[in-house]
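Box 3.1 A note on notation
Throughout this textbook, protein chains are presented in two layers. The first layer is the amino acid sequence; the second is a token string describing backbone geometry. Keep the layers aligned when reading.
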Amino acid sequence: MIKKISLFTLVLTLMACGSQKKIVKEHETVPEVKPKNVVITTINKNYIQDSTVTFNSRLSFSKDGESQPKASLSLKMRNNKLIWGSASLLIPLGRAIITPSGAKGYAKFPSKLYFDSDYALIEKKIGLKGLSYEQIESILTGIPIFTINDSDYTMTQTTTGYTFVYNKNKDLLTQKSKTELTQNYEFDKQFNLVKQSFVRPEDGTKVDIIYSDFETISGKSYPRMMDITANEGKHIIKVNLEHKSIEVNLPLQVPFELPKESDGYKKVNL
């Protein structure tokens, strides 16, 4: 996907093991074969159902093997309306807020910076047309960022779950598409998304997002661990997000105000 997906993911705060074939032994039970449309319907039922979700998390980041100190992160989401984040490392580091109209945020340390971007600018920077706020929510809550349907994806059922491959992947790579990504998804037997992978055909940038340690809360399965690896050719960026607690349907307080340049802050573009 995305030449700057690592930075974008951190703002929103956005390796993988290849699936291994498993030999079914005589004492193992062969899973019941399910029709593709039934699997897709079940997967789509796992979308966010709660009005608000609050995560208290630990965030780690590394680039080319050089790790940064782990930061504490508070994430608050109001379904289909906003994502608010506040990061700290002994001292407050900064805040960000994402809404359907765009993203705003600022950092206090090590430099005083702020940004204010609509999706048109974000789409231009990351090379993906049609980016939506709902896709950002999906990344953070373990949902495919593109809606899987019966006609555009091929499903394979295995002893460990289900895989979906976008039918246009081969053509996109051949044409070195500048507007679409290849897509691959893996689900476990409980229909939890355990991996979603994307390649930007134009330059081969690859992003893998791995989910694990699922917890069911209010009828929705949330991953407590998320690992992102962005391979940008010359650089490999890794992000780990570990949710220490997940709470739903709480009243949200999301204090936010962009700082002023007169206070020493410099505007940057995503």
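The first strand starts at residue 52 and ends at 63. The helical segments are 5-12, 36-44, 119-126, 133-141, 169-175.
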